[in-house]
Amino acid sequence: SLGLDRERRPLPKTRNLALLAFAVVIGLIVLSAPIAAQNGSEASVWLRDVAPYLMLGAAPVLAADAARHVSVRFFEVCLLASGIIVLVGVSVQYASLRGITDTSAEGAVLTDLMLPIALVIYATARVITRGDRDERNESGLPAYIWGPVAVIGALSLLIAGSRTAVLVLPTVLLLAVILRRPAAFGRILSIAVGVVAMLLIALAYADSLGVNRSVVTERIETLPAVIDSPSGDPSFSDRSAQAEDGWEKFLDSPILGSGAGLIFQWYTPYGVAREAFTIDASTATLAKFGIVGLVSIVLFWGAMFRMMVVEGVTARNRAPIIGLSIFVIPYLVLSNPFEDKTLAIGILLLLGAALGATRETAEADSQRVTEAHDSA
User: Fold this and answer.
1) Percent of the chain at pLDDT above 70?
2) Which own/partner contact pairs does 44-51 have at CB distance under 8 Å and 24+ positions apart?
């Protein structure tokens, strides 16, 4: 059962914090409107540009409310289903862009990275914390499925040529340190070995599957060179040019920014002029919303963590959100997670599962007390 008929459990403090997080983001969006209009941004572009931030702000509110009604299993099924769908879209689209395959998923599904990353981190966090005592009080999916999900998810991102997936390994290692789970390093090593083994198998059968193996191996082989000298990588150079334009526009209006819908201009490493209102650089948020926007995002993230503290969410159930937060920090160097539409979906499902698990544990404890009282 997905637990849609579960008893309501009021969460007034959590709800108020969720509304605070939403109000912070809404305030930022409203403040952006007259600034964007003054700078000549088109209304349609402005609406498209603020959509990811609106989704992000609504995520904690939806998670807090849904956690009162549905089970952990429901959140996990939604995360697994939506994560796999987007992961397939991301893998196919990235593979198509890099010449690995002729198939394209553009326009078919969302092809943003943060939801697949959230799925991999959630699965790995479940492996790390497997066996914790509060696990028995939850209605989540069987523990044995999360190891394969973590392996296949990370493998899919690597095969697609997304070197961003490499950040997942230090993320989960640091998560194990923060959670003080020394035994988890063996489990993480098992996942890493599984990814490598399946990658080698996939490459061995690449030709029969119609996959251009040389593109995948080249992306992996060039990773040390990119780390040693990022400026030599066309992808990194292109993102650097975008980040530089974003930074220059931030300096033009550092306090309030230039508003959503701001158009960025830059040149690719091949000398082609480009312009867009979204770029693969975190300076985009600074350029659009200024220091006020940065402070708002910090307040939003703080309110989200405060929700878990107030509700008494255990370390095991906080782990996925902590892992996602750890991942976001270095990812800011490579792209802009806040304009990734699937980040909001990931936060909604991860936070909802954490709050729902806390409710189920409290209900199970209350039921045991009641049963003990009746038997006495």
Assistant:
1) 73
2) 45/261, 45/263, 45/277, 46/259, 46/260, 46/261, 48/261, 48/277, 49/260, 49/261, 49/262, 49/277, 49/278, 49/288, 49/339, 50/260, 51/341
> What is the bridge-based pairing of β-strands 264-267 and 273-276?
antiparallel
Which DSSP category does 9 fall into? -
CA distances from residue 11 to 8, 18, 64, 307, 312 in whole angstroms, order as listed: 9, 10, 8, 10, 11
First to last CA, the chain: 32
Closest CA to 63 of 334, 280, 350, 313: 350
Q: Residue 168: CB partners within 8 Å, gap ≥ 6?
A: 117, 120, 121, 124, 154, 157, 327
Both structure tokens of 240:
């650097």
Name the pTM for this structure.
0.83
pLDDT, tens digit, 9 for 90 and up, residues 145-185: 888 888 888 877 776 656 676 777 778 777 777 777 666 66
pLDDT tens readout for residues 261-288: 999 999 988 888 999 988 888 899 999 9
Judged by DSSP in three states, 273 sits in: strand
**What does the pLDDT read at residue 6?**
44
Residues in the chain: 376
Which element (helix H / strand E) includes 264? Answer: strand 264-267
Question: Measured between alpha carbons, how far is 219 from 195 in angstroms, rounded to an integer?
Answer: 16
The pair of structure tokens assigned to 60 is 């904690």
- Residue 99: what are its φ and ψ, rounded to 5°? 80, 15
Element housing 275 (H / E): strand 273-276
Q: Which two tokens stand for residue 157?
A: 């991102």
